[in-house]
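pipeline/complex-builder :: batch 7 item 3
reading input block
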Amino acid sequence: MAEVLQAKDADEWAYRGEGAVNLVLSYCGTSPKFVGKVLRIQKVSNKVSKYENGHSALTKDERVLWGQFEGIVAARTREIAEQLYVQKVMCPLLGSEHVDAGIRILVSREFLKAVENKVLLQRPTLRVDAAKVNPLCDSVLVIADHSIFPSGILKEDFCLSVEIKPKGGFLPTSDFIDEENAVKKRITRFKMHQALKLHDGVISKISKYDPLDLFSGSKDGVQNAIKCLFLTPQNNFRVFLNGSLIFGGMDGGAAECVSYTVDQAFQDGIKRVIVAKDGMHSKYFLELVTETVMKSGLLNQLLEVQKLDSIDIEGAIHAYYDFVSLPCMVCRKKGENKFSGRYSSIHSMSKDEKLKLVRNYLISATGKDLSMMISFRPRKSMDVESPHRSVLLKEINQTFDYKASFIDLDMKPLKKMEYYYELDQQIVSCYVQMVKDDEAIQNGVVGIDGSLNSYIAKWK
Ligand SMILES: O=P(O)(O)O[C@@H]1[C@@H](OP(=O)(O)O)[C@H](OP(=O)(O)O)[C@H](O)[C@H](OP(=O)(O)O)[C@H]1OP(=O)(O)O
Ligand SMILES: Nc1ncnc2c1ncn2[C@@H]1O[C@H](COP(=O)(O)OP(=O)(O)OP(=O)(O)O)[C@@H](O)[C@H]1O
Ligand SMILES: [Zn+2]
């Protein structure tokens, strides 16, 4: 009979982290089956949400959308479909050596309850208020722990790992972008979204990070991006030592660091791995991350996936309405005729072409939201063969094994398309308003909206 995790097993799992929809636990027991693994447990919103990740299977339209991928249509639950999505859709695109789709394991309700109680005090308040462990889950995912090297490491070894959530790394060029929204072709969504997040109080400071730098392929660009992530990590940058968080936060908001003289835990942590003169460890740490990001080539692959969004949400939304057989709310609002107006080239496409546009948009959305984890351990001797790739930091003559993986490759629900459109419009209008207010201030005119003025100050 298949193993089912019970309440007593909760003792062997410890809080690792969480995002908006999953709680992640690391294994601290001795069973070879779980050593080097994490458990990824689905959460459910405390508020009733339109986009709730419930226990239901895929919708009829989603089954058509993902039908060409083996097994997804027949999946009994959304969790099973999501695991197959990682295996069949994302793995081939990102490389199976960088992705672990994991295996599902059965859990009892008592296990979920025990785990939830155990980690409650370690969870950020914002996350506790937002969501709880989904009590209806009967299975959870067991995935490789990407913050450590696979088993076989000695106890005294140290492994440093870095988690980066790069977000969208290119500017859209789609002809379907409204003239009013032309700013989208010049400013990244990440940067514009920062203005909205600040306005809504989600963050207290604008990130210095620019995804275009990270994806630039140039050493200077990547170096600058990593430095900015370090200065304003928000939910885009974290560092772990042997799986314990030593830099950044899990609250999805504004974990902020203002200088290289950060937390002692971080300083102590990097000293265990990087051999350098006092005061130089942070510099070489950032150098190591930069070199490895460049060398791994992971971002080139990721950018290709993100670029599957070829016509932007302002184009894809029209394909969506036809695909789900609903009147196009965007054409209706804009007073456009579906078959002769600005978006007629989309509305008159074949069913298959529209399906492909929507599917590619959603795959790209996964690519714009995933994270990558890169783990490092110092190579003790170049004579010993290692199955891992390595990077040499010339200035300190130190070689590191590294392992790079992608995490959080979740399938985005089809019904989120309308939300994506609305959010996109909101992001642009908030940013445009901010720029207008900024100009008004510079011209000596008092801004229209006091709250906007206050975040312009924070922008600078
Ligand atoms: O829309 P975005 O860019 O804010 O992305 C959301 C993320 O926000 P952030 O990266 O902080 O801006 C958001 O992350 P946080 O909860 O803010 O850490 C989620 O990753 C969300 O995806 P899902 O609902 O969990 O499937 C993400 O939603 P998707 O757009 O990827 O569906
Ligand atoms: N395989 C893994 N190995 C090591 N750490 C992991 C792994 N998977 C997740 N984590 C840690 O747990 C955190 C939450 O996981 P994950 O990003 O999958 O949650 P999520 O709720 O799906 O996120 P999001 O809000 O982006 O949708 C990650 O940020 C990472 O720190
Ligand atoms: Zn339309």
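note: The chain has a mean pLDDT of 90.
queue -> next item
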